[in-house]
Specification:
It is built from four helices and three strands, in the order βααββαα. By secondary structure, it is mostly helical. The protein has a domain of 67 residues. β2 and β3 form a beta hairpin. The protein starts with 8 loop residues before the first strand and ends in a 20-residue tail after the last helix.
């Protein structure tokens, strides 16, 4: 399949086309990292990223399907507890690091 280069859109142009007007950095993240395991297909031309409209449509369709599938699988407290037990058994849990100021210790009585 050949690409019609006159139809390529920059990530900024794609951003303006979408209803929610995401920041071009969001589109870059969709290309690099993906969303629900699906990555936006882009082309690199002269050091800039471009996208074809059909790839945008395909990405949105695939993400919508993945999200609907993901949303239909509820996460329960038992599910979370089971995952926690498996991680603890495999010695993969790390202590949670808190941000900000340390909590004050309650006064001893």
């Amino acid at each position: 399949m050949t690409t019609d280069y006159s139809e390529l859109l920059s990530l900024s142009e794609v951003s303006r086309l979408l209803p929610s007007k995401p920041n071009p950095a969001t589109l870059w993240r969709w290309h690099k990292v993906g969303c629900y395991g699906i990555r936006l297909k882009t082309l690199l031309v002269g050091g800039r990223r471009f996208c074809e409209r059909r790839e945008i449509d395909a990405f949105i369709e695939r993400v919508t399907q993945a999200r609907e599938t993901h949303a239909s699988t509820p996460v329960t407290a038992e599910h979370t507890a089971e995952t926690h037990r498996k991680l603890a058994a495999a010695d993969l849990l790390e202590p949670i690091k808190r941000r900000g100021r340390p909590r004050k210790q309650p006064a001893s009585r």
